[in-house]
Request: fold
Amino acid sequence: MEPSLASYLALSGILFTIGTVGVIFKRNALGMFMCIELMLNAVNLTFVAFSRYYADVTGQLFVFMVMSVAAAEAAVGLGIIIAFFRNRLSIDVDDASILKN
Amino acid sequence: MASTALFFLFAGFAIMCAISMVYHKNPLYSAISLVGVFISLSCIYVTLAAPFIAAVQILIYAGAIMVLVVFVIMLLNLDDQQTQNRLRYLWALGGGLGLVLLVQTFFIFYAVMRAPQQASDQALTVGKTLSIGQSMYTIYLLPVEIVGVLLLMAIIGAVILARRLAQPQLELVVDQELDRRNEEELEDEYRIKL
Reply:
C-alpha cells in the first residue's frame, strides 16, 4: 500500500511551517534566503503529490516553473546580499536601516 | 508497503534536516542541512513516480542554487553570528504563526478525505520526460516563454547589481576606507622623504 495524499500534504505543511518560522527568527540575510528556498520546496512537494494522485502533468510543469523562478531569485537575491555586504560590511538584516528615519 | 516505509524514512530525514537548518547559527551548516532536505525531497519525488522532477531537483537546487549560496558564504567570510538587541515581539510573532500553520497542517491531514485515496495507474506515464516535454511545448508554451524572459531579466539584474562602478553611492564605506588608507600611505611616503 502507498502513503495517502494527506500524508504528503502533511509533510509539505510541516516543512512550510519550519521555513516560515525560520524566516521570522533568523536575522541573517543568507539564512532567510535559505528558509525561503525551503518554503518553495514544500509547495513543490504539494504540486507533485497532486499531480500523482490526479494523473495530471500540469503540477509537474509548474514545479519546473517554480524552480526557474527560484533560480532567478537566487541570482538576484545573492547579488543584492553582496551589494549590501559591500556597503555595510554585514549581512544582518537589522543593519539595513538607512531608510528608517 | 515498501513505498510507505521509504516515504516515512525520507520524510523524517527531511524534517530533521529542516529543523537543523533553522537551528544552526553558522550559515554553512544551514546550507549543508538544506542540501539534505533537497536530496530527501528528490527521493520522495522518485517514489511519487516523477523521475524527471527528481533529477531536475538535484540538478537545479542541490547543484546550482546551493553551490551559488555556498560560494557567497565563502566569499563573504562571515564571523559567527552574534545575537544583538533583537526585537522581542518577533518571538511571539514567529511562535504564533508557526502554531497556526501547524494546526492548519493537521486540519488538512484530517480534512483531505474526499481526495482520491489510491494513486491512479495512468500516473506512471505522467512523470516521464516525454509527456512533460510534449505538454511544455504545446499547451504551456506561453508560460515557458515567460519563464525564459524572466531568466533573461534575472541575468541582466544580477550583472547590474554585481558591478562596482555602476553604483557609486552604494560604495560609501569602502570608498572612505580606501581614502583613509591612501592618506596613510601618502603620510608614510612624506615621512620617508623627510
Remarks:
- Chain A touches chain B through 75 residues (CB under 8 Å).
